[in-house]
Fold each of these.
Amino acid sequence: MGLVVQKFGGTSVGDTDRIKNVALKVKAEVDAGSQVVVVVSAMSGVTNQLVKYCQEITSDYDVKEYDVVVSTGEQVTIGLLAMALQAIGVPARSWTGWQVPVVTDDAFSKARINQISVEGLRSCLDAGMVPVVAGFQGINEQGRITTLGRGGSDTSAVALAAVLKADRCDIYTDVDGVYTTDPRVVKNARKLDKVTYEEMLEMASLGAKVLQTRSVELAMKYSVNLRVVSSFEQNPVGTTICDEEDIVEKEGISGITCSHDEAKITLVGVQDKPGVSAAVFNAMAQANICIDMIVQTDSADGTHTDMTFTLPESELSKALAVLEKNKADIGYRSAISDSDCVKISLIGVGMRTHTGIAQRMFEALSEKGINVQTISTSEIKISVLIAGEYAELAVRALHSAFHLEDKG
Ligand code: ADP
Ligand code: ASP
Ligand code: MG
C-alpha cells in the first residue's frame, strides 16, 4: 500500500465548502488504495489577521507569544477537515504540531524542524484513519509552541513525507502548477511540467511564494517526490519537482521572480583596511540578520570607500540600530538606507551552458529605462536590484525578452 502526503493551502481550505471539497480529494486518494496523511494551512486571510492582532498590541512583541497566536489558525482547519472526512465516511483525526510531535529549534517565528516522531501517526494510519496534521507549527525542546515562517505548511508536509518515506507529496494550491513567473502578474506565463529541485530552490528563495524555500531544500535532500497541483481541478497533473536527469527537454531559463522584501544600506566612508567587513557582518550575524548582495569597490584615495549591501526590508530598522550601536567599532561616516527596491531574478540551469544571458537581461531592462543598482549571480541565476516602481515592468520585459510566454 502506497503512502501519500497531501497538503492543502489557505485558499483551498478558505471556507467550509472548500473544506468539504478537500475532504472529497482525500477520499479519492483513500479509495484509490493509498494511506494518506493530510497537512493543512489556516483558512486564507486568517494568519494575516492573527499577525495584525499581534502588531496592534505592540510593535515590539515577544516572538514566543507571536507563535502562540499565529499557530492557532491551523488548529481550526485540522478539526474542521477531520469532521468533514468523518461526515463522508472516512475515519480521520486531527493532530496539532505538539501532538505529533514536530520538534523544532528555538528560532521562534522561523523555526527549523529538528525531528518528527512518526509512531503516533503510524498507529493512526495502521488503524485505518487519516491523520490531519496542522502545518506551520511545532514545539521546541522546552515545550513551547513554534512556527516555521510564513508559508511553512509546505515544509511541514515535505518533512512528514520525508520521515514517513511517502511515495508522493502533493502540494494542493490555488494555481495549477509552477509557472515561468507569477501567473497573477504576467497573464501569459507558461506552466512548467517539470522543474529541477535546484531551480525551484532558487525560485522559492528569490520570491516565488508557491513553495516555501525550506520545503524545497528538504525535498531535494531527501529526494521527496514533490508535485504542485490545483485544488480546483479534477485529476490535476500540475508540476513535478525532480532531479535534472529526469527532465528530457530542459528549459534554458525556467523562471523569473520578484522579491519585494528587500532593502539596501550604504555605509559611506568606511575605512579601506582589513577587518572592516568582518566587523559589519559579524554585527549583522549576531543580530540574526541575513545579508544578501554585497558591493564594495577599491577606494579612490586609498583610505576610505563605501559599502552597499541588501537585506530583508522587514529587518531594516533592526539593522540600522545594530549599525548605530557598533558605529565606533566599524568606523563609518554615515548610513544611507533605501527600502523602495525589489530584486528581480532570472533562473535556469541553461545558464551553465549558454552565454549572453546577462547581456540580454541588461539590454531588456535598459530598453525600458530601468536602472540596475546592484547585481549578483550564481551558476544558475542572475539577480538585479532595481527601484520598486519598475517591478512589474521589469518582470514582463524579461519574460518576453526570453520568450517564456505560453504559446498555446
Ligand atoms: P497556498 O495558500 O496554497 O500555500 P500560496 O499563496 O502560498 O498558496 O502560493 C500560491 C501562489 O503563489 C499563487 O497564487 C501565485 O500567485 C504565487 N506564485 C508566485 N510565483 C509563482 C510561480 N512561479 N508559479 C506559480 N505560482 C506562483
Ligand atoms: N498559515 C501560514 C501562513 O499563512 C502557513 C501556510 O499557509 O503555509 O503563512
Ligand atoms: Mg503557501
Amino acid sequence: MILRSLSLFFLFLIALSCTNPIPETPKAVLVIHGGAGWISKESVSDSMEQAYIKTLGEALIKGRAVIKDGGSSLDAVQLTIEHLEDSPLFNAGKGSVFTYNETNEMDSAIMDGATGGAGAASGITTIKNPIQVARAVLDHSVHVFLSGPGAEEFAIEQGLKQVDPSYFFTQKNYDRLKEVKVSTTMPSQEKLGTVGAVALDANGNLAAGTSTGGMTNKRYGRIGDVPVIGAGTYAENGVCGISATGHGEFFIRNVVAHDIAARIKYADHTIDKAATEVITELKEKGGAGGVIGLDSQGYVVMPFNTPGMFRGYISLDGSPVVAIYAED
Ligand code: ASP
C-alpha cells in the first residue's frame, strides 16, 4: 500500500514536471541588446569594454525606472532605446553606420503587445532619435510603416527633434565604410551594433522596439529587418516580445521574431526553446545574429549565433546584468 502511494506520488511529480516546463532562464522586466557580431575579447579594448558595459547598464536602469514608477512597457522600451541611440557606441541614432553613398539611413520599429499596434520607419536621415518616429507612427497615424521623406515630414509635423545629417558622422564608421568599400559585397563578419529592448510592465503588457543604422556599405534605400514587423521586432501579450539584431535579409526571409512567437503560441514551446532553435536554424541557413526576448512571465532569452552580442537585463529590484561575449 505504502509502495503504491509512493509510486503514485512519484508519477504525480513526473507529470507535474512535464506539464510545467519552466525554462532555466532568469526573469526580468527589461532586456536589451546593442548588436551582435564578430565581437571578441581581443577586438575590444578594456576601456571600450567598460564604456559598453556602462552605457548598457545606464539604459537598463533608465528603462526599469519607468516600470517601477508604474509606467508602460512601451515608454520603457522607447526611453531605453533613446539612451542607446544617443551613444556613438552603437549602430543606431548617433552611431549609425554609413551607406555606400556615405549617408546615414536609419530604421526603427516599436510594437505594443497589448493592442497589437505597431509603428515603423525607414530611411530616416535627420531625426535625432529614430525610435521616436516609430512611436509617433504608432500613436498618431493610421499607418504602420512610413519611409523616407514622408516619414521625415511626418516626424517634423509631430515636433520631433531634427538635426543636421552631420550629427550622425563618426570617424570610426566612416573609416569602416572606406575599408569595406573596396568590395561591393556586404561585409560578412561585421559587428552589427543595432539596439533593441523588450519590456514587461506591471499590467502584464509586453512591448518591443528596435533601432538601427542598418549595415555598413548598404545601398541607399535598402531597408533591413528592424522596421519589418515580425522580422526584427514583434510583441504579443501572453506570448512574447522579441527584438533582433543581425544580417537583416536573413531575418526578413525567415520572419524570425514572429517565428519565435508562433512556436510559443501554437507549439507550446518555452521562449527558451523557441528562440534558441530559431537562432540555431538561422545559422544553418547562413544568417548571423541574435535576439532578445521576454515571455509573458518575464523569462529572459538572449540567444545569438555570432562570437558576441552586447546584451543585458534587469529585474524590478536587481542590479543590471550585462554581457558581451559568447563565453560570458
Ligand atoms: N539587422 C540590422 C539590419 O540588417 C543590422 C544589425 O542588426 O546590426 O539592418
Amino acid sequence: MSKQVQQRIDELREEINSHNYSYYVLDAPEVPDSEYDRLLKELSEIEQKHPELITPDSPTQRVGATPLDSFTEVQHEVPMLSLGNAFSDQDLSDFDRRIREGVESDMIEYAAEPKLDGLAISLLYKNGVLERAATRGDGRTGEDVTLNIRTIDAIPLKLRGKDYPAVLEVRGEVVMPKTGFEKLNQQQIKKGEKPFVNPRNAAAGSLRQLDPKITATRPLSFYSYGVGLVDGMVLPNKHSKMMDRLKSWGLRINPESQVVKGLKGCISYYESLADKRNSLPDEIDGIVYKVDNVKFQEIMGFVSRAPRWAIARKFPAQEEMTKLIAIDIQVGRTGALTPVARLEPVFVGGVTVSNATLHNQDEIDRLDARAGDTVIVRRAGDVIPQIVSVVKSKRSGKPRRFHMPTACPVCGSETARFEDEAVTFCTGGLFCEAQRKEAIKHFASRRAMNVDGLGDKLVEQLVDEGLINTIADLYHLKVEDLVQLERMAEKSAKNLVTSLETSKKTSLARFIFALGIHSIGETTAQTLANHFLSLDKIMNADKEQLLEVPDIGPIVADNLITFFKQQHNLEVVEQLLAMGISWPTIKQKSKTEQPLTGKTFVVTGTLESMGRNDAKAALQELGAKVSGSVSKKTDYVVIGENPGSKATKAQDLGITTLDETAFIALLNQ
Ligand code: IVH
C-alpha cells in the first residue's frame, strides 16, 4: 500500500515539476491552470494523509508556516559583483576596444541580455535541492531569504535531470512582472495601503517580508543570468553554454538573451530591445553585454567590484526629479475634472515632460503633493507621465494643501463628487463648453434622439463653425446654414433637417436619456419614465420620491436633482419642448396590466436584429425586469450568438431560454 502511495506521490511531483518547467522555462504551458491545480490538490491530499512522506522539495512545500523574527546573514563565498555602466554608443565602443586589445582578437562575441530591474539573488542548490537563497547585500554579506524565495513558482525547489553538479550556486534577478505590479497596486489602493512606486521596489518589499505567507501572495518571478560557486563539474567554455545548461536543469533564462557579434551586433541588439522595451513583460533598465568566451573573461579579470568583461548599457532614465509649479484643473469631455501637475520641464523617458496627470483628489492626498514641492516624475514608454512621489525633505515653507474646486473652471457650474467615487465632475452638462460637443453627440445618437445623418464628425464641424452651441440649437438649423459647410451637399443638408424634424417625435425615456445626465443610462431612463409617467413629475421629484423607484439609489437621485436644479439646464429643456419635441402620453397602467410585469429576464450573447440595450428597453417597456446575472429568480434567458456562461447556467438551473426568433415573437405578442 505505502509503496503505491509513494509511487503516486513521485508521479505527481514529477508531473507538477514538469508542468512548471514547460510554463516558466520553455514558456510553452502544456496544461490549463485547472489541471495543474488539480494535480497539486491531489498531491497535497495524499501528503496530508501520509505526513511522513512529505519532503522539503515537494511542490506543496513552497509556503512555510512560521514567520521569521529576523533575517540571518549569509556570506557569499564568491562575491556578487556589480557592473560598470555605458551611457552612450561611444562608451560601448570604448568597452569593446578595451576587450579587443586585452584579448588580442579582432571581433568579440558578446552574450547580450536584458538588464532586469529587480533584485539580485543567489540560489544555492546542493545535490539538486534548493538549500539556501540570499540577497546580494553589499556583495559579500547578504540576507537569508530562503523561505520567501521558495514561494516563487518560477524557481525550482529541485533541479531537473541528473547531470547537475553537487554544488551549484545560481545567480539571477527576482522581478515583479508589469501586469502583476499593476494588479498588486490596485489591491494596495483598495485596502487603503500605499501603492509601490515601481516594480523593483515592489519586488524588494515583497522579499523583505518576515512572513513568507505574504510573499507567497506577491506576483514574483525570476530569471537566471550567471553562476557563483560551482563544485563537481567542468564549466563550459562559453557563458551562453552555461546558460543553456541552467535551462536544462529547470532554471529560467530570459528569452530575449542572444549572442551577438562585435560592437555592431551590440548596437543593433540595443536598438531592437529599446524598441520592444515597453511591450516586454518585465521592467528593464538597459542591456548587459558579457564577453561570451570564458577564457577571455579570465584574461580581462576585474576592477574593484566589477568585471572588466561585462558592461551595462543603460536606457534613458524613466524617473527624474523636478519641481511641481502648480496644480491646474482640466475639464474633460465627459465633465470629469482632472488635476494636472504643471512641472518645471525635465527630460525623462526620452522626452521633455512639463505636465503630468494627478488623476483625482485621492491621488493628490495620497502623494500629499502641493504646489512648490519637489517631485519624482516617471515616464515609462508611451505611458502618460506620472508623479510617483514627493521628496518631502526638499519641501520649504508651508505650501497649502490642494482641494478640488467647488465650481467648474470652464462654466462655473457646481462640481460634485459622490461617495465611493474618486472623480469630481462638472454638473454643467449641456451648458459646459468643455462638454458641449460630447453632450450634443450623445443627444443625437441612435439610442437617444436618433437623429439620422448627424454623426460625431458633423457635430464637431457644427460646433467649430459656430452654427450650434447647445442641443436646442440643433432644431434651428436650416438647409441654407448647412450647405455652407465643407463637404455638405444640398441633398444631405435637406436630409439632416428632415431627420431632425422626425427625431422630435420620441419617447419620454429616450428624451431623459438624451439629456446626458450623469449616471442616467437607458435602463434608468426607462425606469424613471415607467414610474413617473411625465417629465414634469421627474423634474420635480424630491430625493425621497426618487428613492422609492426600484433600482434608483442615492447617487442617481442626487444627479437628477442637481441636474434639474441648474437654471441653464431648465432653459434648454424648455427650449426643446417649445421646439416641438414630444412623446405619446404614457397612460397609468396598473402594474398587473403590463404583459411582462413580475417577470425577470436576462439577455446574453449578440442579437442580430437589435442591440442588447434595445432588447432591454423593449422588455422594460412591457413591464419586465432585466437583470445582469442568472439566478433561480430568473424567468427567461434570451440567448443570442456567442452567449457566455449565462446560457450554460440557465440550462443548469432549468430556466426557460429563448432564441432570437422566440424572443421577437414574444415581444410582438
Ligand atoms: S550580471 C558579473 N546580468 O544588475 C556581473 N546582472 O548592476 C554580475 N542585473 O547586481 C551581474 N540583469 O542585480 C547581470 N542580465 C543580467 C542582469 C544583471 C540585471 C542586475 C544585477 C546586478 C546589477 C549590476
Amino acid sequence: MALLLDGKKVAQKIKNQLKDEIKKYTSKGLRNPSLAVVLVGNDPASEVYVRNKRKACEEVGINSIYIHLKEEIPEEELLKYIERLNKDDEVDGILVQLPLPKHINTQNIITAIDPHKDVDGFHPENIGKLATGMKDCIIPCTPLGIWILLKEYEIQTYKKDVVMVGASNIVGKPMSLLLLRNEEATVTVCHRNTKDLAHHTRQADILIVAVGKPHLITEDMVKEGAVVVDVGINRLENGKLVGDTDFEALLNKVSAITPVPGGVGPMTVASLLVNTVSIYRQKHGFEKHPLTDI
Ligand code: NAP
C-alpha cells in the first residue's frame, strides 16, 4: 500500500510555524505581512480559491487586502489597480487570481506586477531567474509546494528520472525548471503533443501530473514503486473531486502518492503564505524564508 503524501498535514505544520514567526515580528513592533488578492468577475471556482487563500492568510496573521472587481473592467483600469498596489509600501505580495476574463491580456497583467511583489512567481523576471538558477527569484506556489512536500517526506530528487505531464506556465514549466536547478533530476516534460505518453510515464521514478483530465494516468502507465504527485483537480458529474490519476488503482503499485483533495492543493496555499512572508522578511532586512531557499 502506497504512502500517502499528506499535504494537508504538512501545510498545517508550515502554517503553525509561520504563525509563530509572524508573532515574533509583531511583538517587536513590526506590522503584519500583507497580501493583496485581486479577483476579477464571479467565477465560482475562483471565488472558492480566493476564499481559501484569504482564510489561510487570516489563520497565520497575514493581512489580506481583497479587491473584487467587475467582470467587465477594462484592462487599463485593472492595470491602474496593479500600479497602486505596486506603489503601496504596506503591500508585500500581489496576487491576481487566474483565469482573467477573455478581454484582458493575462500576460500584460502579470508583467505589470512589481516582480518583488509577484507572490505567484509568474512574472517573466522571476521565471527567467528560476530558469537561470538565480537565488533571488520567487518560485511559483504549486511547484514550491510540491518541492517542500517531497522534501518533508525525504523523497530524493537527486539523480532521479522525473516525468512532468503538463506544460502550463503555472505548474508544468516552472516545476521542470525547479527540478533542473542544481542539475538535481533528469526531467522529461510531456504535453498534449507527446507521441507516446505511457512510454515516458513508465520510466518515471517520480511522476508529476498537472493536466486537468480525470483518470488520464492509469495503473499500466506507472512503474512499480514510483512516487506520484497528482496536481489535477477535477469535479466529476457526481460531485466527487478527483485528480488526474486513477488513484485507487495506483495505490497498490506505487510507493507514495498525493491524494486529491488533501495533497498538492493545501501545499499550494501554504507556499503562497511562505512566499508572502519571504517577501516581507526581505523588505525588513532579513534573509528570504528558508523554505524558499532552493
Ligand atoms: P492548463 O494550463 O490547462 O495546462 C494543462 C497542460 O496539460 C497543458 O500543457 C496542456 O496542453 C497539457 N495537456 C492537455 N492534454 C494533455 C494530454 N492528454 N496529455 C498530456 N498533456 C496534456 O492547466 P494547469 O493550470 O497547469 O492545471 C492543471 C490541473 O492542475 C488542473 O486540473 C488544475 O485545476 C490543477 N491545478 C491544481 C493546483 C493545486 O494547487 N492542486 C494548482 C494549479 C492547477 P495544451 O496547453 O496544449 O492544452
